[in-house]
Amino acid sequence: MFCLKLVTLLLILEICTATIAYHLEAWHSTLPFAHTDDLLLAHKACEIATKYDAYIYTVYTGAQQDNTTYVLELNLLKCMAELPTHITPLKALTKEPQRPYNSFSVFVLSASAVAHPDYLERIVSALNEKQMRKHFHKYVFIWRNAQITQLHGLLAAVWQRKILNAVVITDAQQIYTFEPYTAAGFALKRITDEQYFYDKLRNLHKHQLRITMFKDFLRAIPRERAADGYNGVDGLLASNIVSYLNASVNYTQPADNENYGVCLPNGSFTGVLRELIVGAADVSFNARFTLPCAAAQVEALYPYFKRKLYLVVPAAKMLPEYLIFIKAFTCTLWLLLALNFFAVTAIFALLKRYAEHLPHAVRMKHGRWYELIEMFLQTQLGEPVDGFSRISSLRQFLIAWIYFSYVVTTIYFGKLESSFVHPGYEAELDSLDELVNLDVPIIGVHTLFTTVQPALKATHWHEIEKRAVSLPLYFSSFLYAVPFGMRKNWRVAFLLRGEAAKDLLIKTYDVQRRRPRFHVVKEYLRSMPQEYILQKGSPFRYKFQLFQAAVFESGLFEYWNSNALRYSSQPEFHEVEEFYEELPNDLDFDLSEIADGGGANAERTRRHVVLSMHILQGAFYLWGLGILFSILGFVMEYAYWWYRNRKVKQ
After folding, report:
1. Is 162:543 a contact under the CB 8 Å cutoff?
2. Contact, 405 vs 379, CB < 8 A?
3. What are the tens digits of pLDDT across the range 68-97?
4. Most distant CA pair in the chain: distance in Å?
5. pLDDT tens, 383-406?
6. pTM (2 decimals)?
7. Tens digits of per-residue pLDDT, 577-588?
8. Three-state DSSP class for 44?
9. Which of 532-550 are b and which e, b meaning 16 or more Cβ less than 10 Å from the residue's Cβ?
10. Element (H, E) at 212
11. Domain boundaries defined on the chain
């Protein structure tokens, strides 16, 4: 009986144990303890996320309703709790937002995703192809036990969104990324060295880079073969980047011939802006400024330089030279010299009057007042004096006057010679407040007028608008200012960027007068960053930026600029080159300092001065006045003689 009870008790205990174990197993299955593979996957993703700093880490959860990734997601969030993590359900994801900061995104994909073709397509289409600064954003996809073909399809779709920094984790030892440019094209790559995000654009293996450019007479000068690209600063930068990346290149021009392009009222664009926005080109290497209406649609490399817009006006006219003999001294000095002359004459007359009352004094032969004036004028002009007094005090007075006259006469003729060599000019227009005095039309491409308008005062813009002559945008390719400026009988002003203004000054330089024919108004109209633009969301941005920074820091930009302009078409090449070298880059200068021949080239400037009729006209006016006064004097003398003779006869 005891044995039966013991067996029954043991049987009941065994049944209870089995029941408890069953319930424990069922309860245990509901606890969020990770499968070993899930835990390793979560830790690997967390390790990669921790290795790369980001402003925000986004985890996209809720892959499928079958809950196959619930434990993985839970452990991933627990691991990344120490990072600034934001959780977003995949169901709520429609389009990845624009992020002005660096980010790190983790997608947890369901193992059953292969059974739902639209599932991956929806996730990939949510990635923002226009995300700016792509190299700042990293993407990790956790896809447990995915096949190679599935990985290839996923990463190929990611690359179509122009995303470079993407990896897929299938298990702790299987991490894949892709190489977009190999000799065979797109290829998967298994990561074995823990370098998850690296430079994938080191070598493009002759894959094509699409560059949209147009002719610029200073910065992008077409070579003999269109396929060879351009010379000039912009052309050399483009060709060197192509060589640096080991790429092939396809140069295209804007189909609408609008060059830089503009924003149209209907929201569309023209020129290279349109080519980049619609995806017909990767980059434009024509340096430019970008207005706010287009800046949001493209990306730009760092602007190392500024582009200033200037008003270039005709140089000031030469002052009238028929008064050159009078303008050698100021009016105040002439008045002082006249007062001094009459004062000297009066003092001498008084001294002579009292000196001649002395014992044994001899009166002067020509001592009347008008004879004294004639005598001092003769000595002023260096003529000898006849019949002067023998009184020593009067002789000392005359000697002092002769010395004084010699000094004044020497200074006068020296200043007169200087006036011949360096003629005077009217004041240059250097302030926008003086636009009311501008009496010529202002020619410029219409986008330049649109650009400067917001930066000007209403009064200044009104004066420019009244004189504005707008040209179509394709004129930005041509040296249109020089043909206008070379016509001596045409007086026009131009609205130009700094480089074009500098080029115009040199190409229209008047070698005979040693003076430019145009003047750059010191007060520039607007200053904007000078930049190169590319597609919004372009993967090439960081690579182009690194190369541009290297070129800038090495001084190649300055070297290319210094060799960009050649003026061999000018017969006096060395003089124009000297003027070019003296021009500062920012054009914030006074041209008279250069035109007047100061500095090291002053001696050479004086030797090359050409005395034209315009400068020597004063001498002919003086000669004509001398003849006129001589005739008037003769008429008066003859009239006086005739009157006296008639009176004697009567």
Report:
1. no
2. yes
3. 677 788 888 888 888 888 888 877 778 888
4. 199
5. 777 767 666 677 777 777 777 888
6. 0.72
7. 555 555 655 454
8. helix
9. bbbbbbbbbbbbbbebbee
10. strand 208-212
11. 1-31, 36-174, 331-421
